[in-house]
Amino acid sequence: MESVAAEAKRLREAAEAKPLKLPVRRKVDETHRAITRDGLTVWFTIQVSSHARIHDAVFERADRMPGDEECETWLRELMPGQEAVEAPSLPGARTRHFEAFERDAAQAPVA
Fold this sequence. Notes:
Blueprint: H1 4-17, E1 20-21, E2 33-35, E3 41-48, E4 53-60, H2 68-78, E5 85-86, E6 95-102
Parallel strand pairs: 1-3
Antiparallel strand pairs: 2-3, 3-4, 4-6, 5-6
């Protein structure tokens, strides 16, 4: 895999090209996924509705919970200028989920 910045750019472009329309959840295709050499899987999607855009990043590992530093590095590249909020995880989970919401009607395309 290339640098985090290059791979994050590819994921952002894939998410912009194929956003998911709410409230219907469709299967996310493989273009929204990256796997690092050390085993971190990163999923990134953008979900749109008539009033919001939700930038959604999921980090997972087979052996342990992804660390703060690695998630923050990716989040800076995936969601520049946005503040992502982490969803609660179950004890022992190996997945972390972050979302950033855009509620500005001017930026939220009609679904």
